[in-house]
Amino acid sequence: xxxxxxxxxxxxxxxxxxxxxxxxxxxxxxxxxxxxxxxxxxxxxxxxxxxxxxxxxxxxxxxxxxxxxxxxxxxxxxxxxxxxxxxxxxxxxxxxxxxxxxxxxxxxxxxxxxxxxxxxxxxxxxxxxxxxxxxxxxxxxxxxxxxxxxxxxxxxxxxxxxxxxxxxxxxxxxxxxxxxxxxxxxx
Length: 187
Description:
Blueprint: E1 2-14, E2 17-28, E3 34-39, H1 44-58, E4 64-67, E5 74-77, E6 83-85, H2 87-95, E7 99-102, H3 112-125, E8 131-132, H4 135-152, H5 163-170
Parallel strand pairs: 1-4, 1-8, 4-7
Antiparallel strand pairs: 1-2, 2-3, 5-6
């Protein structure tokens, strides 16, 4: 029914130089299936591209997406849970039939699964420092590692099954869209 989204900042070696990359983290709430993709910066184009890649990786989208109050996504915080979302982000959400939900400011526990994933992935994927030729190679490696970790990690509630096994049952229930969103930024 839902996924959670967050960013992390990680140090990696690309082409022999140590650089800080921004990693977009997605986590399906039921199966706990992770997805990570790295960028050089956190802009609207990167948010849109990360969603396109994540929904391709998962083979569909959920009904709800749970977010921080990212400046690239939320243009205005109103009373309670009401938000004004960026118009292009709303178009992406509409395309994939996702209802975006922003957390209460300073309430990270509202998306605690992905917060835990950031720490877990940092320790499992980025220590020791990852060395790749470029960002494309790093993203292929991250995609493969997400699958490997899911196949070898027990689901926290269904201890007799792996995350990958639970995801295999969840995946057919995700909403599939025939064509990916065109994630350009209007200027």
